[in-house]
Amino acid sequence: MASEHDVLAALDGVRDPELDEPITSLGFVASCAVSSDGAAEVRLRLPTYFCAPNFAFLMVADAYDAVAALEGVRSARVVLEDHFAGDAINDGVAARAGFARTFAGEASGELDELRTAFLRKAVLAGTDVVCQPLARGGTGPEALAAMTLGDVPRSPDLDRLRQRRTELGLPAGDRAPLVIDPLTGTGVPAIDLPLHLRKARTTRVSVQANSGICRGMLRHRYPAAEPNSNEEEPG
pTM for the complete prediction? Predict the structure, then answer.
């Protein structure tokens, strides 16, 4: 039988697509429960009533998939609370209808391109996290451009970057270039590296700023809201 702890652990793998953080560490899980016969229910909350429905749909759908896949869960129900499109999203996810059918006449298609765009941003932000300490330590553009992932000491930040690159279908093995263009998967030449790293830095700062804003708005909307896991916030 799955437990509430198992459900929360599964939800640790569900991320806000824009912030690239688990919905648990963001405090988006209002509650979760598993009945004695294996029926799991998760209730989600977001920082504002008007959070973009495409972002919300991705999180609700991903949460459903994560919980439904757990051993010992006979049925799964994910409910988005206090959202202007909550009823439509909840019904669409429960019916496995997809975003386009759920918002027929309003949506132009599914959300694969949106997910990919945010994964590329996550790769850029993760590149900054990994490369900045190297640059501060004196590693110059020529050396950074020549480095592979296997040249970097193992760390949670490096593992996270590898995972995001894998999700995008980009090279993530030890021999893959450390710094790549997330559009092409090819290494960035030394002459272009400073500009690329400035873009990566800007992306990271933007994501972190949005994360702080979302956390503040969630606490204002739900004063008792706290993270649902012990995961550390990304650096």
Answer: 0.92
